[in-house]
Write a structure and sequence with these properties.
The model has no long low-confidence stretch (mean pLDDT 94). A hairpin with a 5-residue loop joins strand 4 and strand 5. The longest helix is centred in the last third of the chain and has 22 residues, at 148-169. Helix 1 (5-14) runs antiparallel to helix 3, helix 6 (98-110) packs across helix 10 (205-211) and helix 6 (98-110) packs across helix 11 (216-227). It contains 11 helices and 7 strands. The protein is 49% helix and 15% strand. The protein has 231 residues and is α/β, with parallel strands linked by helices. The strands form 2 sheets. The protein has a 4-stranded parallel beta sheet, sandwiched between helices.
């Protein structure tokens, strides 16, 4: 029997493990190892929306946040939207993540989760959450590019991750990159590894929600036009 797109994603997530070195003060959170329910809800999501063998277009994030995919295992999806939009309830955690708010408002206008996920697949070049220790001893979300030595230490893992994602069944003629700074680093990786023919850059959902919320509808329109190749 042919393996579905969703089964391939589940296998990819099951095998995710970063064992490399990190600079002092950084650590990686692997939600699939830390919470058994994450593995369960992630599988439900991919069985529900990706149970076919169709090719998808690739939307590339940065790395998961502690409150989004760092809990649910589903990119840009907090527990609120996992339940209210995707119909999958998570008992062990309750999270609200601002990027998830924008993505699911955009997905609703695109035509809903089933329509959107039939055409697109979202993941990150570094698909596990990264956190950084503050002077006060608290752990905060970090991006893979926040520190030059961090990027160098995770670069090979990121290239391998992107190649493994592509092998699941992705269209490499163009890729949609979320975040302008993220795009600069994806361009570097692409130049080295020749992964995608064309990069289309969109503002990151977190940036839109935090700094451009009054213009949110303009950004939703821009996303939909870009994803439909009308921009």
């Amino acid at each position: 029997m042919t393996e579905s797109f969703g089964d391939k994603v589940i296998n990819f997530n099951r095998q995710l493990n970063f064992s490399g070195s990190l600079p002092d003060g950084f650590k990686v959170i692997n939600p699939y190892m830390d919470n058994p329910e994450t593995m369960q809800v992630m599988q439900q999501f991919y069985h529900k929306f990706y149970s076919d063998t169709e090719q998808r277009k690739f939307i590339v994030g940065i790395n998961p946040s502690r409150h989004g995919a760092g809990v649910t295992g589903v990119p840009f999806t907090d527990t609120k939207r996992l339940e209210s939009v995707c119909g999958i309830k998570m008992e062990s955690a309750h999270t609200h993540e601002i990027s998830s708010v924008f993505m699911y408002d955009m997905i609703a206008e695109y035509g809903g989760a089933a329509t959107f996920y039939k055409q697109f697949y979202i993941n990150s070049p570094f698909p596990l959450a990264i956190v950084r220790k503050t002077k006060e001893g608290n752990w905060l979300n970090a991006n893979y590019y926040d520190d030059a030595s961090l990027f160098e230490m995770v670069k090979e893992f990121m290239i391998l991750t992107l190649k493994n994602n592509i092998s699941i069944g992705l269209d490499t003629s163009e890729v949609y990159v979320l975040g302008k700074k993220n795009a600069l680093f994806i361009q570097k990786l692409n130049k080295e590894a020749h992964l995608f023919e064309q990069l289309k850059v969109l503002e990151h959902p977190r940036y839109i929600q935090q700094y451009k919320s009054k213009e949110k509808q303009l950004y939703i329109d821009k996303y939909i036009l870009t994803l439909n190749n009308q921009l």
